[in-house]
Design goal:
306 residues; 2 strands; globular; mainly alpha; 11 helices
Length: 306
């Protein structure tokens, strides 16, 4: 019985991987299909004859400078980053990605800690939930590209005041800003998920709040927590990349995106290297949380969306 369950889980894993590979293949086919069939200058509506740049571009241009072939993007990864004796682009992307991944991991840890505390407080006291939850939701409306320079400016003032504050820490704080939200909501929903009959049973045993939390609420919250942690990991990577772009921190993949995007007119395939690297970072971050799920496999039945 246990062997059949293991085989069923392995089969589901292979099916999920197959669907993922099929999705990537479909995207590549759509890209190349549109490049082959689409007009070189794209599709524009409302253009005025004789006026260059007028009208609204609704479909992208398909010439090589705007839309390179997939195989050109892949080949560019193995060419020098900026000519001469510079390392291949894929090496530079991997180096920058490791920097961003480390910062995102710090942001994820901060976000998980803050989100878990907020979710725990909101579940414990209904008044705290009424007071905090609307502000937690509203906080996600603030544009990150405007919020990042504010955090960086505060960090600079702290550093000037005598307390060391490296720039990467500002990026980590910004990453945690996106990471804490799904964790807070997941903890709130997960801790409130046990059935009433189970809570009543704990009361008949004269169990207080903390024994109930540790023995009932936390195990019951695992199906809600794991999706929340995966989403928080992907959000932390997104926040780190956007923060690097916004505050101009060097060494990360966000800065590399801006630098190579400025060369797109002469080297159109180059910006896609760090773009692929950013996508891979998000997948690695979200997939790493699956390792936590392996240790909590007993409680993963009926895993829910946070």
């Amino acid at each position: 019985m246990r062997g059949s369950a293991r085989r069923e889980r392995e089969l589901r894993g292979w099916v999920a991987a197959g669907w993922g590979a099929l999705g990537i293949l479909v995207v590549l086919l759509i890209w190349e299909g549109y490049k082959f069939l689409g007009p070189a200058e794209g599709v524009t509506i409302g253009a005025v004859e004789g006026e260059a740049g007028s009208g609204l571009l609704i479909l992208p241009r398909t010439h090589d400078r705007a839309m390179p072939h997939v195989w050109d993007m892949v080949a560019r990864l193995f060419q020098p980053t900026s000519g001469g004796d510079t390392p291949p682009l894929i090496v530079s992307v991997m180096s920058a990605a490791l920097v961003t991944l480390g910062i995102a991991a710090v942001g994820w840890l901060i976000g998980v800690t803050v989100g878990a505390i907020l979710g725990l407080l909101m579940q414990r006291w209904r008044l705290v939930e009424w007071g905090l939850l609307p502000w937690i939701v509203v906080s996600q409306i603030v544009p990150l590209i405007a919020f990042a320079p504010v955090v960086n400016a505060i960090g600079i003032q702290i550093d000037r005041g005598g307390t060391p504050w490296p720039q990467w820490l500002s990026v980590a704080i910004i990453a945690s800003y996106l990471a804490f939200f799904p964790v807070a909501i997941g903890v709130l929903k997960g801790l409130g998920s046990p059935d009433r009959i189970h809570l009543d049973l704990m009361r008949t045993y004269a169990a207080g709040y903390w024994p109930t939390l540790l023995r009932l609420r936390l195990p019951a919250s695992v199906p809600y927590l794991l999706p929340a942690l995966r989403l928080a990991a992907a959000n932390a990577v997104l926040g780190a990349v956007v923060a690097e772009v916004s505050i101009g921190m060097r060494g990360g993949i966000g800065r590399m995106l801006i630098q190579l995007a400025g060369q797109a007119s002469s080297d159109p395939a180059a910006p896609w290297g760090p773009t692929f690297g950013s996508i891979a970072l998000g997948l690695i971050a979200a997939g790493s949380v699956a390792l936590i799920g392996l240790a909590l496999a007993t409680y993963r039945r009926g895993e829910a969306a946070a």
